[in-house]
Amino acid sequence: MSDGILAQDHGKWSEITLNRPERLNAFNDAMHAALRTEIEAARDRGTRAILLTGAGRGFCAGQDLGDRDPAKMDGPPDLSKTILTWYAPLIRLIRSLEFPVVCAVNGVAAGAGANIALACDIVLAAEGAKFIQSFAKVGLVPDAGGSFSLTHLLGEARAKALALTATPLSAAQAAEWGLIWKALPNEALMDEARALTAGLADGPTLGLGLTKMAIQAAATNTMDQQLDLEAQYQKTCGESPDYAEGVAAFLAKRAPKFTGRKP
């Protein structure tokens, strides 16, 4: 696909690359539309996992501010329109996918670029990567779910400090704080990310998808609500071919062959 997105279909899983390296993969409208189209196409053809990464030396610098420059416009831009048209639907789409989304942050992830990464289910980053809440540098507030993700992953104190100062956070520090899962040597990032995504795609993706949904729901549910949700999801999983296959494989001491099919 053109318009700043590359996509590879590996059968059970898909690799999607942000591909405007000359702009550090900053988003324009065409790239937004192409990314959403490719994610939706992968979902609709039965993809069981997605790997999202960036081309060149950066993951994503967020919004291309050249497209939102007040000096080039008749008046101030309506940035809520940008969020509601592009970023909010993208974050909702990623979090609604009923299978894992892995993000391999290959370089700088700034502004909305950082927060798109944080919306994914498992985030790996190259040791040379940095996460920057750069909004404060241009008088804006964190968007693309950043105010939610930072607060829930790090707590209010660290979320405020990162957002108010725009201090770059190294991949190693992000992993130590629990913002991402793992920091890896630059040269090892993509091999491990691809192996992880392929392994997830071979797994019991019905159960993995419901695990994702249950953990996301826990951010706002009470314990009682979460216990009820677990029972509901476990009923679905228990009736699935993957559970029957998993038990059979365990008892026979062989590798399972999961399909991800619903009951």
Structural description of this entry:
The protein is α/β, with parallel strands linked by helices and 263 residues long. It folds into 2 domains: 5-201, 2-enoyl-CoA Hydratase, Chain A, domain 1; 205-252, Lyase 2-enoyl-coa Hydratase, Chain  A, domain 2 (Orthogonal Bundle), CATH 1.10.12. Helix content is 46%, strand content 16%. It has 10 helices and 10 strands. The protein has helices spanning 29-44, 79-96, 112-118, 146-154, 156-165, 171-177, 189-201, 205-217, 223-238, 241-252; strands at residues 5-9, 13-18, 49-54, 58-60, 101-105, 108-110, 122-126, 130-132, 169-170, 182-184. The strands form 2 sheets. It has a 6-stranded mixed beta sheet, with helices on both faces. It has a 4-stranded mixed beta sheet with strand order 4-6-8-9. Helix 1 links the parallel strand 2 (13-18) and strand 3 (49-54). Helix 1 (29-44) packs parallel to helix 2 (79-96) and helix 8 (205-217) runs antiparallel to helix 9. The two termini are 34 Å apart. The mean pLDDT is 95.
Mean pLDDT: 95
Helix content: 40-55%
CATH architecture of the largest domain: Alpha-Beta Complex
The number of distinct helices, counting runs of at least 4 residues, comes to 10
CATH superfamily of the largest domain: 2-enoyl-CoA Hydratase, Chain A, domain 1
**Cα distance, first to last residue?**
34 Å
- Main β-sheet: number of strands, strand sense, barrel status? 6 strands, mixed
Helices and strands, in order, run as EEHEEHEEHEEHHEHEHHHH
Number of domains: 2
Q: Regarding CATH, which class of the largest domain?
A: Alpha Beta
